[in-house]
Specification:
alpha+beta, about 20% strand, elongated, ATP binding, Asn/Gln_tRNA_amidoTrase-B-like, glutaminyl-tRNA synthase (glutamine-hydrolyzing) activity
């Protein structure tokens, strides 16, 4: 039913011309196309002829797992893919009489993230209970920060291409409403063969930062770019590893559409998207689904939906809960969280027993935007190249290491990194850290090329041999395959003469002809 529904929406939308041009036919399965996203800003023209255009509105709620050795309120270890229910304390299992103890590392990570996202840090924040009943939530409630979160009123700047051209980029900003600390739930594992559900509580109680973005985006491309920038910031800070494949960064997308001058439409929430590529597809599909529904006289339900990556569409999950359904109440077992800055820190206070906002701020590393500026300024590379270097984990460090070890100019080095090395990595589905060609070997090869000991064609041959990982150096490969360029004119003349002497008849015929 879901597959037929998805196909029908898109077939009618294409016939009507409601689906705008996207990045290409491969963006969606079975001919689906992405929403036309005007990178310069403005409304999306995606309606029937003569009807006012639709304006899509997209807001995001992002759950980032905090990089910490233990959980938010217990001493249980945090480890991915541990044996089921092997990392569960009495508190995690919600046994009677157990009490929460706040993890200092999680608070520091949230403060660090808030500062990096230009937020105001609340010196006094509160914890609340959010009630809902799932098998993988033993207490029947989640400890979160609904009333007064740890950070508010921030912003995130991100960049995206205009018409998919890397040399034409525009920077946009999305407002950050708040960042709150909260517990993760356990995990339900559904065994369809035996018609049963198993519960793994290893993840129950793991510390999360929920980053709530205002509805300032209008398409999947913008949502994906904002989340990718946030992911890079979290990884740079070390506040979260943000590996989406391991569930360390999960996105809920709130989507609605309306005509210009009208109030926002009814929104739907697409839950637990665990891939940036799927996020873009889910948002764009949901926008087009809502437009199709409204133009055919239907209504949009305030519901929670899931994105089916195989079918390429969203499917209903349940009605959307309201605040009254969660029955929020103050958490009675946790006092207010008090933070200090340099001015408010009492003179006789033990610094190890408090969290100093200014101390954390002074130790913030360079953020991705600053790193890009430094790469462009220091090495003279194009701005779009700096984005590629930072988007691939470890590639910027690899590039800088090669530059330090070679005599070749950085502008030439970047071409070998992006056009040759990166294509090899993508072709073999390898990360930079898994590359069989180290920065030392690539620098050695580029030095041979820069000294004109080999040609560019020969250098590519050597790189292909290095990729085999047989432990040979570039110079050894050059000598084995006799790829050196001859610099001695006398030796070159002797080779030419030997060729002529061995082909006398051909030479005579050529001269006579």
């Amino acid at each position: 039913v879901a597959a037929r529904g998805c196909g029908a929406v898109w077939r009618r939308a294409r016939q009507r011309g409601a689906v705008g041009p996207g990045p290409g036919p491969s963006a969606f399965p079975r001919g689906h196309r992405a929403v036309a996203c005007n990178a310069r800003g403005g409304a999306l023209s995606a309606g029937k002829s003569g009807v006012a255009p639709w304006i899509p509105v997209v807001g995001l709620e992002i759950h980032a797992q905090i990089s910490s050795n233990s959980k938010l309120f217990s001493g249980s270890q945090v480890q991915f893919a541990a044996p089921p229910n092997s990392l569960v304390s009495f508190f995690d299992a919600s046994l009677p009489g157990t009490l929460p103890v706040l993890n200092r590392r999680c608070v520091e990570a949230a403060v660090m993230t808030g500062l990096a996202l230009n937020c105001s840090i609340n010196k006094k924040s509160l914890f609340d209970r959010k009630h809902y009943f799932y098998a993988d939530l033993p207490a029947g409630y989640q400890i979160t920060q609904q009333r007064v979160p740890i950070a508010v009123n921030g912003s995130l700047s991100y960049s995206l291409c205009i018409d998919n051209k890397m040399n034409q980029m525009v920077t946009k900003t999305v407002r950050i409403k708040q960042i709150q600390l909260e517990q993760d739930s356990g995990k339900s594992l559904h065994d369809d063969t035996r018609s049963q559900t198993l519960v793994d509580l290893n993840r129950a109680g793991v510390g999360l930062m929920e980053v709530v973005m205002e509805p300032d985006m209008c398409c999947g491309e913008e949502a994906a770019a904002a989340v990718r920038e946030l992911q890079l910031i979290l990884q740079t800070l070390g506040s979260s590893q943000a590996v989406m494949a391991e569930g360390q960064l999960r996105v809920d997308a709130n989507v609605s559409v309306h005509h210009p001058g009208e109030p926002y439409g009814v929104r739907t929430e697409v839950k637990n998207i665990n891939s940036i590529r799927f996020l873009a597809k889910a948002v764009d599909y949901e926008i087009q689904r809502q437009i199709e529904e409204l133009e055919n006289g239907g209504t949009i339900l305030n519901e929670t939906r899931a994105f089916d990556s195989k079918l390429g569409c969203t499917v209903p999950m349940r009605d959307k809960e309201g605040k009254q359904d969660y029955r929020f109440m103050p958490e009675p077992n946790l006092p207010p969280l008090i933070l200090y800055d340099a001015k408010s820190l009492p003179a006789n206070m033990n610094h190890q027993q408090v969290i100093n906002i200014d101390w954390i701020h002074e130790r913030l590393p360079d953020l991705p935007s600053v790193k890009r500026e430094k790469l462009v300024e220091q090495y003279g590379i194009l701005p779009e190249h700096s984005f590629t270097l930072l988007n691939e984990d470890g590639l910027a460090e690899f590039f800088e290491s090669v530059v330090k070890q070679t005599q070749m100019k950085p502008k030439k080095v970047i071409g070998w990194i992006l056009n040759d090395l990166l294509s090899y990595l993508k072709q073999h589905s390898l990360t930079v850290k898994e590359s069989p060609v180290s920065s030392f070997l690539l620098a050695d090869l580029l030095n041979l090329l820069e000294k004109k000991e080999i040609s560019s064609t020969a250098a590519k041959q050597v790189l292909a041999e290095l990729w085999k990982g047989e432990g040979k150096t570039p110079l050894e490969i050059v000598k084995e395959q006799k790829l050196e360029l001859l610099q001695d004119q006398k030796e070159l003349e002797e080779i030419c003469q030997a060729v002529i002497d061995g082909q006398e008849n051909e030479v005579i015929m050529t001269v006579l002809g």
